[in-house]
Amino acid sequence: MINSVNDNYRILTEHINLTSIDLDTKSTNEIVKIFSEADKEPQKAVENSIPEIVKAIDLITLRLQDNGRLFYIGTGTSGRLGVLDASECPPTFCTNPDLVQGIIAGGIPSLTRSSESLEDISEIAISDLKDRNFSNRDVLIGITASGRTPYVFGALNYSKSINALTISISSVPETDSTLDNDIDIRLITGPEVLAGSTRLKAGTATKMALNIISTSVMIKLGKVYGNRMIDLSVSNDKLIDRAIGILFDIASVDKETAVQLLKDTNGSVKLSLLIALSGMDVIDAKQLLNDSKGNLRTALTTLNVIKL
């Protein structure tokens, strides 16, 4: 995180990185090595933020268990990363698309083309949240690498005003930007190889943090058993093969039995596992899962069946 002595008036994400000062004169090999070395910083940034990330995961889980929803909001790269993480939850964890939502300034068109002019309008963010009936049961993660984006600030302030759980993710220290939220995650990755281009290290650290947060929340919601995604959406050949593999690994059933179980349970890997491990019928297994709040390990523990 090396910066020039002339950068004192700039926020950290706009500082000049001296390791890449002559970037345009470097060979391809040298350029790649500079990037490779710089990309060690996002891992350190996430590691340094573990306490805040842990707190976020635990509090988000409580909200979602109480019928709340999780929203990401941002502009540009930050917004796209939020939309990407949200869009991966239904196929990976078979969640309702409403449970985790990504909002980007300018909406869907902004996913493929720039909409910088909207970054400065905080009122639009409030309208975007209201359009989704955002409430005090919900969680908002505002993503702003600079810690200064008006669109994100507007959303965070509105979220606080209605007592929703409010979390910020930024890449600047508190001296550059004050973010007074329930949880303040600072992913300090330093000056970018290409000065100011926060789609690089800051974006990488943000993607890592969002991966950890959403996956950990889903684990706590009972959508994972061991390290298998037992609530995956069996919607194509690859995922069918994965589901069969999970049933084989955990319940030791052959392919023919696995396929039949998936047919009987309308593609539910979790329910199929419970039936295979307990010998219960579909109706009783469904009831036990409901009583166990969808947690397979809890259901198996109730039956004194321990596997994996």
UniProtKB/TrEMBL annotation:
Pfam families: GKRP-like_C, GKRP_SIS_N. InterPro entries: Etherase_MurQ, Glucokinase_regulatory_CS, MURQ/GCKR, SIS_dom, SIS_dom_sf. It is an enzyme of class 4 (lyase). It catalyses: N-acetyl-D-muramate 6-phosphate + H2O = N-acetyl-D-glucosamine 6-phosphate + (R)-lactate. Its EC number is 4.2.1.126. Pathway: Amino-sugar metabolism; N-acetylmuramate degradation. SUPFAM superfamilies: SIS domain (SSF53697). Keywords: Carbohydrate metabolism, Lyase. Gene3D superfamilies: 1.10.8.1080, Glucose-6-phosphate isomerase like protein, domain 1. Belongs to the GCKR-like family. MurNAc-6-P etherase subfamily. A lyase-type mechanism (elimination/hydration) is suggested for the cleavage of the lactyl ether bond of MurNAc 6-phosphate, with the formation of an alpha,beta-unsaturated aldehyde intermediate with (E)-stereochemistry, followed by the syn addition of water to give product. Homodimer. Specifically catalyzes the cleavage of the D-lactyl ether substituent of MurNAc 6-phosphate, producing GlcNAc 6-phosphate and D-lactate. This is N-acetylmuramic acid 6-phosphate etherase.
